[in-house]
Specification:
heterodimer; A: 113 residues; six-stranded mixed β-sheet; five-stranded antiparallel β-sheet; B: 114 residues; mainly beta; seven-stranded mixed β-sheet; four-stranded antiparallel β-sheet; 0% helix
């Protein structure tokens, strides 16, 4: 049973436009959410996180939105740059009874010059 | 420079041999984790340790073993009992124990069993 789902395996956008990566989760006990960026053959790099008490967190070009009622979070990258091309993983954890970080399968973002 | 190091980056072993993957961190983090990534898959938790001399099984611990004798080191042994050991292995650490703290990852070790 996949508790964290990234339904789009890939996404392609033009440089300068907005990239929106989506993530859905099923466990309502999750209270901490993270986005990681990963290049091939490298470890994931932490990008941004959000706790369940907030619905938005911003860091430079990256903004994460959390919709608890829909059990949905999204990562917005504005403006997108070619260097943003990577696989993006969302992860969820914390909360009563949830003792591990659960990762989605990732979305491969390609930003075209 | 603080960080997490994993060595080697690429590792080849014959079927039936045990192999140990190294993970060291100088971030003074309490917790350390081992994940496995397979193509097209998310990261799956193998083992984690929230304090020295203690560790817990993750989702896919069968065929693996770990030790945590020092705060900065969390080696993973892939034993011959692991049915499909070829994968990309990632070590991570977090400042605090528990899963509500951000985990930071090492560069990974690609293990290929021939």
């Amino acid at each position: 049973d996949q508790q964290v789902k990234q339904n789009s395996p890939s996404l392609s956008v033009q440089e300068g436009r907005i990239s929106i990566l989506n993530c859905d989760y099923t466990n309502s006990m999750f209270d901490y959410f993270l986005w990681y960026k990963k290049y091939p053959a490298e470890g994931p790099t932490f990008l941004i996180s959000i706790s369940s008490i907030k619905d938005k967190n911003e860091d430079g070009r990256f903004t994460v939105f959390l919709n608890k009622s829909a059990k949905h979070l999204s990562l917005h990258i504005v403006p997108s740059q070619p260097g943003d091309s990577a696989v993006y993983f969302c992860a969820a954890g914390g909360g009563g009874g949830s003792e591990k970080l659960v990762f989605g399968k990732g979305t491969k973002l390609t930003v075209n010059p | 420079d603080g960080g997490i190091t994993q060595s080697p980056k690429y590792l080849f072993r014959k079927e039936g041999q045990n192999v140990t993957l190294s993970c060291e961190q100088n971030l003074n983090h309490d917790a350390m984790y081992w994940y496995r990534q397979d193509p097209g898959q998310g990261l799956r938790l193998i083992y984690y340790s929230q304090i020295v001399n203690d560790f817990q099984k993750g989702d896919i611990a069968e065929g693996y073993s770990v030790s945590r004798e020092k705060k900065e080191s969390f080696p993973l042994t892939v034993t011959s009992a692991q049915k499909n050991p070829t994968a990309f292995y990632l070590c991570a650490s977090s400042l605090l124990a528990g899963f509500t703290d951000t985990q930071y990852f090492g560069p990974g070790t690609r293990l290929t069993v021939l």
